[in-house]
Amino acid sequence: MPDFALSFDEFVLAASTDSLADEPAAREHADAVEFRLDLADDPLEQLSAYDGELPIIATNRAAWEAGGASDETERLLTVETALEDDAVAAIDLECRALDGSVAAADTETAQQVRTSAREAGVPVIASIHDFEATPPREKLTALLDRAADAGTVGKLATTAHDRGDALALLSATHEATAAGKTVATMGMGAAGQHTRAVAPIYGSAIGYAPVEAAEATAPGQYPLATLRELVDGLATPTNNDV
Ligand SMILES: O=C1C[C@@](O)(C(=O)O)C[C@@H](O)[C@@H]1O
């Protein structure tokens, strides 16, 4: 059986998809598959039939965070069921589900799923998305702190409108990783695209990309093979202080 464990000590490139049939095509470039259960047909059936080699990050994104899952309790319990699958090496839970800051959230169930993941030794990616903008620099640090405290990896995806936004996100990433936090960041939209290639240099632990450009799960994603080439092609400077 393949070793499905995922450690976020090193950059993980996840092929983001609604179909596990993409896994063979992803294998050449990806370290993991992000399976978007909320966008998939019969996600639990796909999981039990999975015979791929890449570890799976299970994400069941809430409709209130621009995902496809509308029944809050059901979507969280589906993630909890997914945890039982050996191939599921990490799960994604929205910070706003965990802290109850949106009215639609079922905080108790979200926290219970996080506890189940911890008991199973499965890392939790605690995520925050801003589909409108990139908040000011200090706010980015506060958001990353909040996400990193909530999960094994704190993930922040914001919409960048210009290079200043991209730079602020990279700078907040650098500060967080230099402080020893495990974070993943990405700028959404055209102005944020290059951050997907560059953020790993500043310590971002996860990148997401579709196998085919047309199957993107967020604005501004590079296709998988392109992101792999870009990330691998950018050597990490040796004079860093992380
Ligand atoms: O949270 C993220 C990051 C993402 O939104 C991106 O911008 O690449 C793509 C999503 O599939 C994933 O769950």
Give the integer mean of the pLDDT values.
96
What is the CATH C level class, in words?
A: Alpha Beta
Number of helices: 9
- CATH fold description: TIM Barrel
Question: Which regions have little confidence, pLDDT < 50, spanning 5+ residues?
Answer: none
* Major sheet strand order: 7-6-5-4-3-2-1-8
The count of strands amounts to: 8
Fraction in beta strands:
15-25%
The helix-and-strand class reads: alpha/beta
Number of domains: 1
- Which ligands does the model contain, each kind named once? 1,3,4-trihydroxy-5-OXO-cyclohexanecarboxylic acid
Helical percentage: 25-40%
Shape: globular
N- to C-terminal separation? Answer: 35 Å
Subunit structure: Homodimer.
InterPro entries: Aldolase_TIM, DHquinase_I, Type-I_3-dehydroquinase
EC number: 4.2.1.10
Enzyme class: lyase
